[in-house]
Amino acid sequence: MTTPDRDRDRGPILAAGCVLWRPAVSGHGIEIALVHRPKYADWSHPKGKRKRGETAEACALREVLEETGQLCALGPRLSTVRYRVAGRPKEVAYWAARTLGGTFAPSREVDRLSWLPPAAARARLTQPRDRELLDALLATALR
């Protein structure tokens, strides 16, 4: 006898995040914010699950603030990334976002924040899908 897959009937996990950027401290180019999640030992863009009734835009802003300590202004919509987590589909909507400032405080969820030039950020990102988001930011959002 098989057990019904309850997760299959609940639909995808909905989440949102940002490719967060700022003008480079050096005055030349931009820097990209990457967060390190100790639970997964990875480097990624700030993102997280939507709360009930929360819009994707509000979620993206909240997650950036929670994970990086940065307030931000949403820019162009990038893409929705789809993948599976523990057999369940997940959909993460992303925006380009410029930081408005703030202060990072390490937490259990995110223990490090790095601001890197795009090439260094691309090399540090763990997942290919996150590199594609960075490429989309550089190709469209900052022109």
Please give the structural blueprint.
Elements: H1 6-10, E1 13-23, E2 30-37, E3 42-44, E4 47-49, H2 56-68, E5 70-85, E6 88-102, E7 112-116, H3 118-124, H4 128-141
Parallel strand pairs: 1-6
Antiparallel strand pairs: 1-2, 1-4, 2-3, 2-7, 5-6
How would you characterize the overall build of this protein?
The chain has 143 residues and is an alpha+beta fold. 27% of the residues lie in helices and 43% in strands. Helix 3 runs antiparallel to helix 4. Strands 1, 2, 3, 4, 5, 6 and 7 form a seven-stranded mixed sheet that branches. The protein has a single domain, classed as Nucleoside Triphosphate Pyrophosphohydrolase (Alpha-Beta Complex), CATH 3.90.79. It starts with 5 loop residues before the first helix and ends with a helix.
Protein traits:
disordered N terminus, 143 residues, globular, Nucleoside Triphosphate Pyrophosphohydrolase, alpha+beta, 7-stranded mixed β-sheet
CATH class: Alpha Beta
Radius of gyration, CA atoms, in whole angstroms = 16 Å
The fold-level CATH name is: Nucleoside Triphosphate Pyrophosphohydrolase
Given as residue ranges, the uncertain stretches (5+ residues, pLDDT < 50) are 1-7
Largest sheet: 7 strands, mixed
Name the beta content range: 35-45%
Tell me the count of domains: 1
Average pLDDT works out at 93
Helical proportion, percent range = 25-40%
Shape: globular
Could you state the order of secondary-structure elements as H and E? Answer: HEEEEHEEEHH
The tally of strands reads 7
CATH homologous superfamily title: Nucleoside Triphosphate Pyrophosphohydrolase
